Amino acid sequence: MNTDTGQDATWQVYLLQCADQSLYVGVTTDLARRLQQHNGQLAGGARYTQARRPVALVWSEACDSRSDAQQREHALRRLSREQKLAIIAGAE
Q: Is the dihedral of CA 38, 42, 44, 47 positive or negative?
């Protein structure tokens, strides 16, 4: 997978499950690096996940572009917890 942030990068939208069982939605071009950031192993990561570690990747989806990934992220954020859990269950 291409891990740079240029035109050729593969954008991913993802769902994390935090230690408090809450769900977090984000986008990235490098899931492994971003997960390490969210868990505090690398600098960066969201303020939301800092107090809810450890986090685990429970779902991801490839998107054609950054714009597509951000639109999908926005749509996922608007879903209820139950709807997000159904998406996760459907992927298993």
A: positive
Domain limits at 21?
A: 11-84
Residue 1 included in any domain: no
Is the confidence at residue 2, as pLDDT, over 50?
Answer: no
- Give the pLDDT confidence of 10-47 residue by residue, as tens digits: 999 999 999 999 999 999 999 999 999 999 999 999 99
Is the distance from CB of 58 to CB of 16 less than 8 angstroms?
yes
pLDDT band, very low/low/confident/very high, at 8 (cuts 50, 70, 90): low
| Domain count across the chain | 1
Query: The CATH number of the domain where 42 resides is what?
Result: 3.40.1440.10
Write out the DSSP string of 42-75: SS---HHHHTT-S-EEEEEEEESSHHHHHHHHHH
Asked if the structure places residue 59 within a domain, the reply is: yes
